[in-house]
Amino acid sequence: MELEENYFILKAKSAHSNDPYAAKAWILTAKTLYPNNFGVQFEAYLIEKAANNYEEAAKCLSYIVMTFQNQPPELWKEVTQLTSALRILEGGTTSEQDFYVKMFQHISYEVQHKILLLTVNHSDNNLDHCKLMLLLLKRFPQTIPTHSPTLKVETFRYSYNITDPKYIDFNITKLQSLGHTLYMNVLKDNIDLYANIRICFEANKNQYTTEFVNKTISVCRLIHDRRYEPLLRAIHLSLMEYSPEFINKCPIQKKLYFTRMENFQTDKIPPVWPEASAKPRLLETLLQGINNHNQFREILIIEALPLINASPPELPSVMVNRIMAICFEYYICQMFKENCDLTTINEYWTKIFEVLDLCGRIMKWEPFLPYNRNVSKDIYWQRLIHIVSSTPPRPSENKQILFCATFLFTMALQEYMSSVRMKVDDVELDYVLVEGFKDNESKRRKADALLEPPRITVYYPCNKETPICFVTAAQCWQLLHSNEILQIDFGQLLINVPVKMWLNRFLVDLAVYLGRNDEALNILKDSKLSNLEKNLRNLSFTVSQPALNIQSFDFLMKILGDMPTHSGQWVKNLSMNCPGRHLLVLPLSRRAIIQYCTKILVTALKQKVMNDPTCTDSLLGNLLVLLQLDWPEEQPLAEYIFNIIQTKGHFIYLQFTNYIICVDMIEQFMSMWYSHGGEVHLEFSPAQANLPSKRIGTRGADKGVKDDFKQIIKQQILKCNDDIETLIQHFITQEHMRLVQNIFEK
Amino acid sequence: MDYPHRAHDALLRIENQIASKKQDHVLDLISEFIFYEKKSDSRKYGNNKMQQSCGLSLIQEFQLVVVLCEFYERPGEEMIRNAVFLSLFEGSNPSRLKVLTKLVGTAIASSVGPILSAAGTWIQQLGPTNIFCMELTQRLIEDFIVFSNKGPEQLRTLPSISPRFSINFLACCTELYLKDTVTHQLLPPPPPALLEVFTNWVQDYPTLCIDAQPQLVLPQGAISMPIVNPLPGLMRWCVLSPISQSAIDGSAYSKLQLAILKCLMQEAKQIGDLPLVPPINSIALGAVIFTLKFKASEIAKVGDPDTDQSMQLSLERLAQCIQIAIQSRSLLDNVPQLVCRLKKLPKNHLLDIVIKSQNL
């Protein structure tokens, strides 16, 4: 039988050159004689293609694709040419490729999809297949949205339940078993009623909703396109519902179509639009391919996701979770690349949140918040808490909390990390979270204090949001560790994301925040923080202790020997009156550090003074020196000390000339010396000690003493503009042994 | 009163008469007031038929055409209009035929649907082989094809204006050309322009010849004649043209052949629940086969019909037509007998294949 077919093909080919009509007649005859012969059918296709008849060629090709299950090489060659023509962007096509594109548009969707399947089956290149699918979905959009509630309807809206067959007035005719064509009778002229038809299909309810949007109709075009048959039926049905004898003249082509009465059969309408499954299939292929090929990731995120954003299809939750995780990893990795400035980071976060929103819509989660850098992280946290409390958490199934918490954590942590390392006037300024001081001498127990959330003071120019960022991150961390499954999932998410360097720092800070000093110490040992930071933190741990110990003093000395170059600004509010703990985001600038160290010493010394007014002059004097740094903050304490001196009646402090430069203190001493008629014996220099007379009062005899004093005072006043910072640093360094004595002696 | 008004009044009266089913004086009215026919007394010749000669001048003929156009453009019942038309132009009067020709010609040129529809009814009722129909057709062809350049253009969209007229006109034309006569002389082929017009008709209106046509709307008591499908005639043209001596084949007939084949593959529309009449009947094909056989025997006298190119071409075309007609269920009756007759034709590969496929 092969010979017979070939006879026809030969005849057709030979006739083709001088008499194309005869050639077609031959092939037409052959098609009826040998409907299952590939050669004949393919020849018919070639003839139509040579004559540039898109529609006819489309019919032939569709028949071939649907009839012949094994693909002969000629067919495959045609299909390759077709698909490569489709891949070319608009405008760059040859006339032949143009033909392919136009022909493809006349092919019904199912056949289109089958052709694409051919490309997948023939090559192992899933990537090409995905790219092609994307191209198709973009270039030939089937304008069938899933239920879109915001469509503006100008005229009418109907819905028809297709499980209820009715008699309708239209004609379905079979056309070579490739589909149905619909003819609609047009009798009355009523153009007003017409509109562009938008069809909404709800698969679960088996309903077509037709909506008339504006006042021109393209029914005639729809009629020639087989893909829209079920639509037209639905349209017509809805028209019939409106008025039983309603049949309208199509205003565009002004043709008359004929109809007849027919029973409407529900099985002729496909239950699900074939297009509906194209998108999930594409996503699945992309996800599978990601393991092998990086390009799939970009195609998925950059091209495929925007495509489904407008009308997301139903997807299994596993797929959605995977998509979410992949997007997160991708964008965070992008953020860590060089040349990533703030605007780009904002963009990436916006995209991450958009994907979160998309996945949320698919999974029907309660919406989170959109990304906005200016919104405080606290607001996000409140929202997260709201979601956690309203939806019963089933972390094995519902990953919403996982994702929201992870994103919030990462976002907050990122901002925190960028805040604690700033550039101020070309100088890098770091910040460290340390324990602060408390004013109130409450007898509250430590445990009570821990129940209150710590108060964090932050200093300009550090971002005021920094504590909030940190606290949010800490809260998210705790939330993500509150449940085993969450913990595991969270760990998984973080594996592929380069936030490790942040995590070390964060964990130290977290330990500090939670008051878990031992934990923090352990982490500190392994961390890569600078010595200064380490020492500072070590020092800060002791602040929370009731009393200073020798070791912390060591730390203090080390710190003073390792000061940063940047001077910075003075900080205030080192000490606060708050119920819970007080923490500081301390800038690593000289002044701040000095203040901090000084404050520690002052606190220790103050304790001593308060408990025992009979403490040594040395102690009192040293304390006075230290108080100068934050003057006039500590004025009440200074006054207290002066009272003690007054009561004591004498005060020997040989370091006076070196270190007391505060004018107020000098004045106070002066008034003590002069006003009380020499009741208080002040000895500030060794020279004074050598004076023979220690009694005051003999006229003339103590003139020398008075003169000396004046001299000393005068000299000191000249020093009052000295740099207090250097002075104090110098003092502590020089006098540290005496300070140790002061603090630790009984 | 001048002629047009009189004719108009007469028409109205005739219409009323027909509507009220009083047929008595209609014909007389027509004869006297519309065609101004003088009755010549031929009783002495023993002739019962009244010979009438039309007494209209050329101008009056023209005016009559105008009046009739106006009359038919008024809305009216189709049955009455058909009845009027039939009454007007029944009978064997040649002068009336002249008027009819002019009327139909005008209707074609100005696309007056109702007149064409009535004319189509007239042709169908009389039958395409009726001498009057054939004469009308010939004159129309002369007017539109032979003596006119723009004629073909005007004819081109005729099927959309009046399918009934087009089909009947086609049927008449097929009777005029490339038909075998009693003396086995083939009638000459149609003029190329006409061929082109018909080819375009079959191409542009593929379902014209196969759609079910509504029955003729005739007054009560009249039996409406079935339509004669022109497709077998067109097929015959294609098949016989290669062996016709005076036909220049070229691709014109292949084009027509292809158009016919495609047309057969189309789906026809039905009216109501009546079954479709298959367009091809075996009798018409049988006639074609007969002609071919005769020609074959003629060729055999001087050469070999199995190798004669034109004969082979004819046979191939025939085979194609038959194959597709059977495949598309356009030919349903007496297929086995037909196939048997095919076997008696000269050898042709395609024909053999078709015969074989039918025997399976």
From TrEMBL, chain A:
A biological process from GO: snRNA processing
Main location per the UniProt record: nucleus
InterPro entries: DUF1091 (IPR010512), Int_cplx_su10 (IPR026164)
Family of this protein: Belongs to the Integrator subunit 10 family.
Pfam families the record matches: DUF1091, INT10
Name this polypeptide is given: Integrator complex subunit 10
Compartments where found: Nucleus
GO (cellular component) term, any one: integrator complex
Keywords, ordered alphabetically: Nucleus
UniProtKB/TrEMBL annotation, chain B:
One Pfam family matching this protein: INTS15
InterPro entries: INTS15
The organism's place on the tree of life at top rank: Eukaryota
Name of the featured protein: Uncharacterized protein
Organism: Pseudolycoriella hygida
